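Subject — a protein and its fold
Fields — amino acid sequence, C-alpha cells
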Amino acid sequence: PDTGSSTEKASTTRPSRTAQLEREGEVAADFLERLLDIADLDGDLDVDIDGDRAVVAIVDSEEGRVPRRLVGTDGRVLEALQEVTRLAVQTATGEHSRLMLDVAGHRAERRRAVVEIARTAVEACQETGEPQPLEPMSAFERKVAHDEVLRLGLRSESEGVEPRRHVVVHPA
C-alpha cells in the first residue's frame, strides 16, 4: 500500500531547480570541452548559476587564448554555439535549457556596454519626454536593456523584426 502523497513523491523524484541548473552546466561543459578538443582550440570552462539559468564561460587557459573567432562578428558565432549547446543539454536532460554561454568575456563586456546605452537613452527620454529607440540588438542584449530601463523606472518595448529588432525606451 502506498501511504505517501503524490506531492511528496514529486519532491523526492524531481531534482531541485539548483540541481537541474548544475546538471545543465555540467552537460554543457562536457559538450563544449569535447568540441574544443575536436577543433584543437584552447580554453578552459567556468560553470556557474546566475539567477534562473546555468552559465558556462569559455575563458583563456594557461595553454593559450580562446580564439575570438568563437565570438564572430556581432557575436553571431557565439549565439550559434550557445544554441547548439542548449540543444545538447536538452537532448541529455530532456528539459528545455535557458543556458547562457560566454566566450572570452564577450557577453560580460556587451552587458556593460548595453547598460550604458540604456542609461543614456533613459536620460534622453527623461529630458525630452520622447521615446528613444536603441540600435538593433541580440535577444540577450535586449533583455539587458529592458532590465536596466525597468530598474531606472521607465518602460521599454522591443520593436521590429530580426535582425533589426531593437528596444525603444518610453517615458514612465
Residues 129 and 171 are 6 Å apart (CA to CA). The domain at 109-170 is CATH 3.30.1370.50 (Ribosomal Protein S8; Chain: A, domain 1).
